[in-house]
Write a structure and sequence with these properties.
8 strands
Length: about 270
């Protein structure tokens, strides 16, 4: 069959992703990506350390990030993202900004991190009080709360699994149960729920939880892809997710806030 008449594949815009060595959810990232964008993923070098604050510091060293960005720039991405929540909040707000600047200088292109994208997503949703759930240990979860508090975000409820390895194996049912518990035990009604860790599967549970909890639900991988694609002037794709779809914000995801304010539609 003669296919010489074909002009070749359509042009693709590129998003570079630096991920920790144990990142296992490449396919989940792709699910938020539109057809005209390609992901280019590289990983940090292996270190024999379990998930912890020590690991977060090791996989976010500036030299490591610069090396990853330079490798990615060989294929010409227009933006680069560091896809690790703990690695980007472990140094606080100033640490996250320094990481972003180190990446930007290394590639001379826009750069962002998961934790920076989280703050941008909360600002987009006009949310200042949240519940958080994580697969982490208590110490790593505490560090996430410290980062959010420093950024002016109040954490009113939380849940964590205490895991130090193979986080990508956590089933959706455990994520849902943890989310329900964190919101039910919250000291004040949260305006949104954040699911932390780029190695925790979340894509399919977000619409379910938004409908059930009646608030926006955002996750580490979701905010990372949303922010990276926004840098391209593009939009992440996802089924009825409040961060991605203004119609979803006006639906079930808005009802808890409306009810708290006393102006729910009945």
């Amino acid at each position: 069959m003669d296919i010489s008449f074909l002009s070749g594949p359509l042009p693709q815009r590129g998003v570079g992703v630096v991920a920790p060595f144990d990142f296992a959810l490449d396919r989940e990232l792709w699910r938020w990506v539109p057809a005209d964008v390609s992901l280019h993923v590289t990983r940090t070098p292996f270190v024999p350390v379990e998930v912890s604050l020590d690991l977060a510091r090791l996989v976010s060293e500036h030299a490591t990030l610069r090396e990853g960005v330079r490798a990615l720039c060989a294929v010409g991405p227009e933006v680069v993202a560091y896809a690790c929540t703990s690695g980007s909040f472990v140094g606080g707000v100033a640490g996250e900004r320094a990481m972003t600047e180190a990446m930007r200088q290394a590639g001379e292109i826009p750069a962002l991190t998961t934790s920076g994208a989280l703050l941008a997503a909360l600002a987009e949703l006009d949310v200042g009080r949240i519940a958080v759930i994580t697969p982490y240990t208590k110490s790593v979860t505490d560090a996430l709360e410290d980062y959010l508090r420093e950024a002016g975000v109040a954490v009113c409820g939380r849940g964590y699994l205490g895991l130090t390895r193979q986080i990508w194996r956590v089933p959706y049912r455990e994520v849902v149960a943890m989310a329900r518990g964190a919101v039910a035990r919250a000291a004040a009604p949260p305006e949104a729920l954040f699911i932390s860790c780029t190695n925790l599967p979340t894509y399919d549970v977000i619409p379910q939880l938004e409908a059930e909890l009646r608030m926006p639900v955002i996750s580490a991988n979701q905010v990372t892809m949303w922010a990276a694609l926004r840098e391209l002037g593009s939009a992440a794709v996802g089924p009825y997710q409040a961060l991605l779809d203004p119609a979803a914000r006006r639906g079930p995801a808005s009802m808890a806030v409306d009810e708290e304010r006393g102006d729910a539609v009945t």
